[in-house]
């Protein structure tokens, strides 16, 4: 029996769509699993490929909020100051993140400049701002509907965050320029590196499925208290 057929049969047996929260799909092999309660600090893995399905962390809200604020601070610093200073034959040139796509607009590459502005500036800023707002709402147990909309938006724009690719491209360009110019790393370069590391840790440590489970647990506990 195929995966699609199994999923359709399960969906037909469910009385309402809320019961779909009891199932989870493996992101690696797309095997369907029924969620089971796990202990704090443990994780559930796929029975077929062994990939991590979800974790349970009782302090996930505090950890997520701290990482969101930290990443947002590093991102702001990376955009306020020059990334590198390049000196060739006595001529100095400062490079910033915003200058990279603004120069594309000035050169007439409007589509490329627009895409770069979204991939390396707008989307990363949105992702960490959404995460900060989301964890704040969950911590205060407010905004049940808003948190759902934020998670839907986050799931759509998260794959388009290319800040790590942008940082790697900077490193490659600097390696090629070492023999031709004097290169001085600016404060924004180290802030961007810290932001990328924070982003990678956040992505690998906190899955979007865990945020949905966390939201469900927070507002179900709130309703039980009432």
Strands, helices and their partners?
Elements: H1 3-13, E1 23-25, E2 32-34, E3 43-45, E4 52-55, H2 60-80, E5 84-88, E6 91-95, H3 97-106, H4 110-140, H5 144-157, H6 163-177, E7 182-185, H7 187-205, H8 208-225
Antiparallel strand pairs: 1-2, 3-4, 5-6, 5-7
Helix pairs in contact: 2-4, 2-7, 3-4, 4-5, 5-8
Can you offer a commentary on this structure?
The chain starts with a helix and ends with a helix. Helix 2 packs antiparallel against helix 4 (110-140). It has a three-stranded antiparallel sheet with strand order 6-5-7. Strands 1-2 form a two-stranded antiparallel ribbon. The chain contains eight helices and seven strands; from the N terminus they run H-E-E-E-E-H-E-E-H-H-H-H-E-H-H. With 226 residues, the chain is mainly alpha-helical. The chain has helices spanning 3-13, 60-80, 97-106, 110-140, 144-157, 163-177, 187-205, 208-225, and strands at residues 23-25, 32-34, 43-45, 52-55, 84-88, 91-95, 182-185. Strand 5 (84-88) and strand 6 (91-95) form a beta hairpin. Helices cover 62% and strands 12% of the residues. The protein is elongated, with a radius of gyration of 22 Å.
């Amino acid at each position: 029996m195929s995966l699609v057929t199994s999923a359709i049969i399960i969906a037909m047996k469910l009385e309402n769509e809320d019961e779909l929260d009891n199932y989870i799909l493996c992101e690696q092999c797309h095997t369907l699993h029924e969620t089971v309660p796990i202990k704090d600090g443990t994780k559930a893995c796929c029975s077929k490929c062994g990939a991590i399905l979800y974790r349970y962390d009782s302090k996930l809200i505090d950890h997520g909020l701290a990482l969101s604020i930290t990443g947002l601070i590093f991102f702001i610093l990376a955009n306020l100051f020059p990334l590198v200073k390049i000196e060739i034959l006595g001529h100095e040139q400062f490079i910033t993140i915003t200058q990279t796509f603004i120069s594309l607009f000035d050169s007439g590459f409007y589509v490329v400049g627009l895409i770069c502005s979204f991939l390396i500036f707008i989307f990363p800023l949105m992702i960490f701002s959404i995460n900060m707002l989301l964890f704040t709402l969950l911590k205060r147990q407010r905004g049940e509907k808003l948190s759902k909309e934020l998670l839907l938006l986050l799931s759509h724009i998260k794959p388009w965050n290319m800040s790590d690719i942008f940082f790697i491209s900077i490193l490659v360009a600097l390696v090629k320029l070492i023999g031709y110019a004097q290169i001085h790393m600016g404060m924004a370069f180290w802030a961007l590196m810290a932001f990328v590391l924070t982003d990678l840790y956040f992505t690998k440590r906190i899955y979007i499925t865990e945020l949905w489970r966390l939201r469900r647990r927070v507002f179900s506990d709130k309703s039980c208290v009432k």
